[in-house]
């Protein structure tokens, strides 16, 4: 299960803030009126790998005038965190120096929207240095570390009956990013329909046998590694 998420940022941003971050350049921002998707292409003109970035999105009407949302904001701030614990299996890759990346932005189209403008307001690099608005990315990574530790605490009693395991799985399901469920599914090799049901909160939990002693050891070790990884990645490094 991919960790990628849109990171919530401030409700409104000044487009002028983009002038402070020339290293990540917006090449294009397009809107698909049929699919209601917005795609933003950016180019990394820095010498570092980009792991996260923030955008100010302004939707415009057919005359090119900005459209304000229901709160009166002329722009929406969207954060894209591309960092993965396992970068080899990541669906969305970090942006290498000189590379161009196109990303679908999950923001709702406003009525009368015909085009969109985007500008970069924050960037995080692989060495954890950053520019502009970036604190929410580090806070999100700290939350992932916390979730991994909470999942480990829930699983530490190592439930030995299907009923006890189901109770723990329900609690893991309620966690925002499914880190505990993902690790458990990987270690006990849950795939296909069962894996889909495990993560789908609208579906009943699949009937699972408790993991073996070795599997419990592997689950605990993996969750500990993930907590340590996200703890380290949540530490911002000043330029």
Offer a few descriptive terms.
alpha+beta, Immunoglobulin-like, five-stranded antiparallel beta sheet, globular
Describe this structure in words.
- Helix 1 packs antiparallel against helix 5 (213-233) and helix 3 packs antiparallel against helix 5.
- The protein is built from five helices and eight strands, in the order E-E-E-E-E-E-E-E-H-H-H-H-H.
- It is α+β, with helices and mostly antiparallel strands and 239 residues long.
- Residues 8-19 have low confidence and may be disordered.
- It is globular, with a radius of gyration of 20 Å.
What's the SSE blueprint?
Elements: E1 5-8, E2 24-32, E3 37-44, E4 50-60, E5 76-81, E6 100-105, E7 115-125, E8 130-132, H1 135-155, H2 162-173, H3 179-187, H4 192-199, H5 213-233
Antiparallel strand pairs: 1-5, 2-3, 3-6, 4-5, 4-7, 7-8
Helix pairs in contact: 1-5, 3-5
Radius of gyration: 20 Å
Q: What would CATH call the architecture of the largest domain?
A: Sandwich
Number of strands: 8
- Tell me, what's the shape? globular
Q: Assign the structural class, choosing from mainly alpha, mainly beta, alpha/beta, alpha+beta, or little secondary structure.
A: alpha+beta
- State the major sheet: 5 strands, antiparallel
Adjacency order of strands in the biggest sheet: 1-5-4-7-8
Outline the low-pLDDT stretches. 8-19
Helix content: 25-40%
Number of helices: 5
Order of helices and strands: EEEEEEEEHHHHH
Proportion of strand residues: 15-25%
Compute the number of structural domains. 2
In whole angstroms, the N-to-C terminal distance is 33 Å
Kindly report the average pLDDT value: 86
> Which topology of the largest domain does CATH recognise?
Immunoglobulin-like
């Amino acid at each position: 299960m991919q960790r990628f998420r849109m990171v919530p940022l401030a409700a409104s941003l000044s487009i002028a803030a983009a002038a402070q971050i020339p290293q990540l350049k917006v090449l294009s921002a397009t809107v698909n009126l049929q699919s209601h998707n917005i795609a933003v292409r950016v180019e990394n003109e820095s010498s570092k790998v980009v792991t996260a970035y923030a955008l100010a999105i302004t939707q415009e009407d057919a005359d090119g005038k900005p459209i304000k949302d229901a709160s009166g904001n002329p722009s929406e701030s969207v954060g894209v965190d591309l960092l993965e614990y396992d970068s080899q299996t990541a669906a969305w890759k970090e942006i290498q120096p000189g590379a161009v990346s196109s990303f679908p932005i999950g923001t709702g189209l406003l009525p009368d929207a015909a085009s969109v403008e985007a500008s970069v307001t924050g960037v995080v690099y692989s060495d954890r240095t950053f520019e502009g608005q970036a604190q929410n990315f580090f806070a999100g990574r700290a939350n992932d570390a916390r979730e991994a530790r909470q999942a480990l605490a829930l699983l530490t009693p190592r439930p030995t009956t299907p009923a006890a395991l189901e109770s723990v799985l329900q609690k893991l399901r309620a966690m925002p990013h499914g880190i505990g469920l993902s690790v458990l599914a990987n270690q006990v090799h849950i795939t296909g329909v069962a894996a889909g049901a495990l993560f789908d909160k609208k579906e009943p939990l699949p009937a699972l046998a408790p993991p073996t002693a070795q599997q419990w050891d592997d689950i605990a070790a993996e969750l500990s590694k993930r907590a340590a990884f996200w703890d380290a990645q949540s530490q911002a490094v000043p330029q």
